[in-house]
Amino acid sequence: MGTEQNQKKLNTLQADPYSLDSSKIREPPVGLRASLKYLGPGFILSASIVGSGELIATTIMGAKAGFVLLWFIIFSCIVKVVVQLEFGKHAICSGETTMQALNSMPGPRLGKANWSIWLWLILMLTKTCQLGGIIGGVVLGLEQLIPSLGTAVLFENETIKLPLRYLTTLLVGVSVSVLVFRGYYVVLEKASLIMIGLFTLLTMFSLVMLQSTEMAVTGMELGSGLTPSWPEGTLLLVAIGAFGITGVGGDEVLAYNYWLIEKGYAAYTGPKDDSVEWERRAKGWIRVMYWDAILAMVCYTLMTSMFYLLGAAILHRNGVVPESNQLIATLGTMYTETLGPWSKIGFVLGAVVVLYSTMFAALAAWTRLYSDALGQIGVFDFKNIKSRKIAIGVFAWVFPVAWTFLFLFFEKPGVLVIIGGVITVVILLIVVFAALFFRYRRLDRRLKPTTIYDLTLWISALAILAVAGFAGKDAIVNAIALARDSGWI
Asked: What is the pLDDT of the chain when averaged over all its residues?
């Protein structure tokens, strides 16, 4: 009987996890072991983080800077987690989506929507560059596996020449659209996490083998990397871009609420009331969320550090920077230099899967974020399950088309990713303001956190503000310089 009731609750939750009612309430697990089967939202974020932040931005930064900014990469991964926790806490206790929560913030409104939603929509137009870089990375990886894809011509006459790359890029975009549109999320999520795990082991093995070569990382180099120093010139732009997309970026923090809700945390907690039972459930599911976010943070911080060290030890020493159409091929030398030529295929396969999972997770998140944002404006009714599915389906096709054209027009995925990262830092400012608002204006007094938690929240907020403040003028100037060097202006 109990099993039938639990299955009924699960079926109801799967029907619409965004609606709260007493039939979905579930007691939270106690202890890490019991909580493991409820973890997942943080690792979904990891799937979207590893490709753009770790694989591309981090290695470009290591190749350009050497060891000296290792501390900055680790700091970037750790410092933003508590802001993510504050967003997640609000979602569990209120059942509100990200855009519903932002729409409750103070400040001017245009129509039905708060200023933060309109600003986010404007910023995300430029943020599209980052995913243009990701789809480009997938295509370049496929061309490494099948060289004819990069050399063959699809159509040619006296005035028009269409490389086969156009068709490859289009097919990659269509495939991710179909998966998100049809809802094949769980299967690809599990497959991606398995491949990311195998790719992580390959990277770890490569770093260990590096220590037996003449390019071994010395204690002095590692020490210099852990000593804080501030970059200058165009390196500052790379550092700021890396800060925006290593670890949880602004868009990942905003997406986290949807994965928590769809996993069931808010529904299991139930509609908010004054009862002791609700307080106990809320604290219990918040505790599970802490495990989810912190364990995911440990994983992607280790992965980020390994990529950075490989980039600094191999690419920087050889004066090689991953650029343009040679991005994946150049990154592959980090493995062939330590493991031998055989490792190139393993790296390229892993890179394609990691980048594809990043693109997939990002598309799944963006379709929800945009549908929700336009729902607050009044275009869609996000609370209505049918309307929500239609909106998500439409965006599942629109975004990959935009990403495809961006890559085919610029063909410099590394630069596209870095520019997207700079925009993410600005989005982080909105996230910080919202997190502090949730903590001090909307948090139930029964859930007041410890002094240590509040201290870390303020440290995180001030660190993000400091990076944005220091970066402001120089980042804009250097972004223009980078675009000029790339031949865009």
From this structure: 82
